[in-house]
Amino acid sequence: MTKYKILGDNLPNIPWQDRPADAKGPVWRYSENPIIDRNPLDKVARIFNSAVVPYKGEYIGVFRAELTTGVPYLYLGYSKDAIHWDFEKEPIPFKDENGKPFMPRYAYDPRLILIEDTYYIVWCTDFYGAALGMAKTKDFKEFIRLENPFIPFNRNGVLFPRKINGLFTLLSRPSDSGHTPFGDIFLSQSPDMVFWGKHRHVMSRGYNQWWQSLKIGAGATPIETSEGWLLIYHGVTGTCNGYVYSMGAAILDIDNPSIVKYRSNNYILTPEKPYETTGFVDNVCFPCAALCDAETGKLAIYYGAADTYVGLAFTTVDELIDFVKNDSALSGEDGEIGLI
Predict the structure, then answer these.
(1) Strand partners, 70
(2) Residue 332 has what pLDDT?
(3) Residue 183, exposed/middle/buried by CB under 10 A (0-12, 13-18, 19+)?
(4) Distance CA 18, CA 21 (A)
């Protein structure tokens, strides 16, 4: 019996490893990390920042694959246990609504979610600058690319797993033409996944927390719980040796998710292991997906490590929510409805 309830499906085959005796904080790493290493398939140098969902009793994922040319595309992967993966040999073949090829110039940092009977992919693409790309599929065989939801510049698009007040709801981080120095999370809603409005401010960069002082961004799809929407996100700071990406967590109001109820003052995971501190981009823990089992409260978090590997970490809904509530420190106008 869990203290807090996950309002979702049971996932009895969720990947899992019990907390080791020496673990610190509410989240612990899989001892066999990284689960995806360098050069995972022909012409692909690295897979990282990727999304995973349950599918027909097994698992399917949309992966950021950095080609040996340096250009990123999205690849499909399959797994029985959500740890060991087989990949398609070519990028996902997106088409438009009329069935014509509609491939992005590049695509990276995907999120993947089932809403009603349709799977949606959101990623960062080139639309005369960094912007959000979006597509849908029902069977992971035909992928229909939708209109880009926003103009540049924007990143970290993350859909909620159900409509809120009858509307599709999307988190994103507006930015500028640089490497996203404008760093707050916003919320937008749509009746049809085409026209987006009702924009609301959700979370500010951490004023008093060095680990998230430069920018923040939504990570995994928000998890619906009895306490509100549990959001795992990334926070970034600048150092004399470059950026550092860590993980944080927050709880958003269930009916008005632009209202932040609780937000962790301290990070829940930060780069410490060699595969997180050293790679193509050093010092990165970048969450993009989380699996959850409603019956046991287990959570499995997928994250990109050093822009080179895929890592896996674990926690429970009880441990993470207790940590966020006991450690909470809101910034600026986080606790307001986000409309001024």
Answers:
(1) none
(2) 83
(3) buried
(4) 9
